[in-house]
Amino acid sequence: MTTSSFRLGCCIALVALLPGCMRGYAAAPAEPPAVPRGMALRSETGGGVLEALAQRPGAIRPGTPYAAIARAVLEGEGFHAASELRVAWLRGEAEELSWLPDLGPDLSLAALRRMSDEAQAQPQRFDTPRKQAERDLALAGIDGAALALAEEANAQVFEAISRHLDAEEARARADVYEAGYRDLAALDWPLAQAGVPAELERLRAQVSRVRDGRRAALETAGAARAELAAMGDSRLGGVEGLGGLRDLVAPSPLALMQARVEDRARLARDRRAANALLDGLDLRRSPEELAALEEAAGFDGEGSEPGDWSPPEGEPRWTQAAVAAAEREIGNTARELEALRAAHPETERRRASAAASAVQATRLFRSGLLPAGQALGPVLNALDAQETELSQRFALARAELRMAYLRGTLVPGSEL
Fold this sequence. Notes:
By secondary structure, this protein is mainly alpha-helical.
């Protein structure tokens, strides 16, 4: 904490305690507020994280390969291990703050909601400014754990589907190369007999490229399948095909929600540190002693009326930076996605046209109506068009996947 933040926290604590100090000299003490100030602040600015996560929609369509992968990941050991680490961290925080809610071995949104309700259901445990700050810090920790759970689930599903796309693209590329190799190899002997060295050299260079490309693609597919199986279980290695994603616009990116929760936690830590110096202070002090305490805390007397202080207006600077970064990344992905969607129909049309021309040229060559040298051009054009369309199709699938991940909608709240 910086010096200025500490001085501000001390100032806040003194402002909150001054009315209590003055009641020590008054004839009739005022009634304590029904709701602690910290609780009121949370209800105004911090509530709704668990509810928003529980209602968060899912972009993966049921019954698709993506859905099978997501289910296997969430049931796998990797996700449970991350959940157990989060539970251990929460228990450590609970022991430090002495609120010790019950928490089972498995972390879920329902378990975190019970913890949050328990922390808020016992206001008598938070009857001092320091304890109120600790309660707010604990609640921010619960919200942060829920967001971390959602982010971990989205990240693991994103990684698994990304590896699946790597495997599917490599498998499809190997199929393209295998078909291309057969078409090109059939032209080798006729071109050699025709005595056209330049065309024969061009053909054999392409045959070598396609043969090496197929071997590399099969290796890539195997490695991706092995990585995918390691993320969940053996089911992941056998999933094939692309899945469907709904183009959902979530209420708020997970990064933005996390930034806001961390700002709330930072504010609670500052308040706890400031009040730790004054909590339990004997309020029957002379005006001179109170003035000395104010001076030690850096309080200059301005804004000393109760209620003058309120949380800073607007988003803190740290949150603004996080929001800007998240929006920038989503915006860049959205533009990439729009460009790919606009370009793909034309790429597919060119692929289909080139494939039709290659089929016709091959038929004429086999009928003896077209020399091998003239059939080579359409076959190579078809191969290039297939490779281009394949790359663009999977780039589009990856952009759609990344957009869903950035919006935090790969895993619905109902599955957390």
